[in-house]
Amino acid sequence: MKAIVVGAGIGGMSTALLLAKKGIEVLVIEKLDQPGGRARSFNNDIFSFDMGPSWYLMPEIFNDFFKEIGESTYPTIEVKPKLRLIRDMQGFVESITDEEIPEDKAFDEYLQDTKLLYELSLKKFLYKELKFTDFLDKDLISNLNKFPIFLNLENFNRKYFKTDIMQKLMGFSSVFLGGSPYDIPSIYSMVNYSVFGEGVFYPKNGFSGYVKNLFEICKKVGIEFKFNSPVDKIKINNENKVECVGVKDQCFNGDLFIINMDYIYADSLLPYEYRNNWSKKRLAPSAILGYLGVEGEVDYPHHTVVINGDWKNHFNSILEGNLPDPKNMSYYVSYRKATDRELEGKDLVFLIPISPIEINREDAEKLVRASINDFLEKTKTQFKIKYQRIYTPSDFKTDYNAYRGTAFGLAHTLNQTGPFRPPMKHRKLKNLYYVGQYTQPGIGVPMVTLSSIIVSKRIENEL
Question: How far is CA 229 from CA 8, 233, 247, 252, in A?
Fold first, then answer.
């Protein structure tokens, strides 16, 4: 039996390994010239950059994955402090890390309650493809007073914390879930337990090291790769099965097909009667990324979140399809060398969440420059930029076929959570499966890794 995996992202390679472990021959077809997908990397002179994920959370999921494939878990370093949040409200600047919590009693209660949800989710929900009836679980229902499903993350956090800076500290994770604290359900507060209860980690040598490790294991077990091979057609036979996927004038046959490329783009390659309706789906934000190679002082933590002015203003700009106002613009900064002192150069990545819209390079550079100047002023850090690369929604679209240039896929709103996310198996095509951030469980490297575990088990059960 042969499986064709389209896309060599973390989800694609993880699925390939799990299928190979079951004795299935696997070919991975990748559009780009390297593995990793959004987690790929690039180098410039002495500077190296992880292009995508920077948070390594929920280590037990990675432990389970590597146990499944019979390999040692990839080594990590704990990040301390976990993050710093800087809040600027009309010129009044506050700064806080997880080691300087002002509402300690409320924080302890919050962690205790979110730990319950986190453990319940791992035990009953995250390791399987959910159905609507799973929400009727007695353990979930009995705790609805603590985790009201219809309450958003912002209002949930306000139940515990009185200070604005603590509310923001517990709300920033919503950005990496593809939304805002005003529309992300309170059940995702479990991510905050992962961050503040379990800890934040960094894969040795960055996510580029993690990707390289997956790729080397794939090659070791005989998985074949074809790079520089963008799939541009999916051929269906008269038995409601995928017969082959096409790259230019070649068509690659298989018994099973697993899609790890953009779900909506893959859908567009199918005959019309097999496509889904995406018109009512809510996209997650895109992002402008500034990759900086610098010299000089960068005396700041690995992860920094900066919130300027009214962050609701920034989230509204995302919803309305506008560029953010620099005075009310929030952004994130990753500085890996704060954790990994062995890195040769100093690299910073600035991430500004924006609506998935077309933006010209000049406007993107202005927003990145505004965030850099703001960061330098607020942190009193002094560095000189020796290298800069700007990455925009258009780049996400070009490189990953990302629908409208979204960085994260579909937002984790209530009606796009669990069983309401796109299915892991095509509703009509008998041998077409999906893995990655669009389907269950959702966005983020731990969730994508779980997605590979779930879909490979489903395939095994259906063989």
Answer: 11, 12, 6, 11
Q: Which residues contact 195 (CB under 8 A, 6 or more apart)?
A: 55, 57, 82, 83, 98, 173
Task: Report CA-CA distances (Å) from 54 to 201, 202, 205, 442, 457.
Answer: 9, 8, 12, 17, 28
**Which has the higher per-residue pLDDT, 124 or 148?**
124
Q: With the CA atoms of 293, 299, 305 and 307 taken in that order, what torsion angle do they form, in degrees rounded to the nearest 10?
A: -110
The three-class DSSP label of residue 36 is strand
| 193 in Cβ contact with 115 (< 8 Å) | yes
CA distance 97 to 83: 6
Class of domain 103-198: mainly alpha
Mean pLDDT computed over 361-389: 96
For the beta carbon of residue 147, count every other beta carbon within 10 angstroms: 19
Query: pLDDT tens digits for 165-206?
Result: 999 999 999 988 989 999 999 999 999 999 999 999 999 999
Q: What is the pTM of this model?
A: 0.96
Q: Mark 209-230 as b/e (b = at least 16 C-beta within 10 Å).
A: bbbbbbbebbeeeebebeeebe
**pLDDT band (50, 70, 90) for residue 303:** very high
Query: Which CATH number is associated with domain 2-71+207-281+414-462?
Result: 3.50.50.60
User: What burial letters (b/e) apply to 8-41, b meaning 16+ CB within 10 Å?
Assistant: bbbbbbbbbbbbbeeebebbbbbbbebbbbbbbb
Q: What does the domain layout of the chain look like in residue ranges?
A: 2-71+207-281+414-462, 103-198, 285-407
Does residue 66 carry a pLDDT above 90?
Answer: yes
Phi, psi of 212, deg, nearest 5: -60, -40
Assess whether pLDDT exceeds 80 at residue 146.
Answer: no
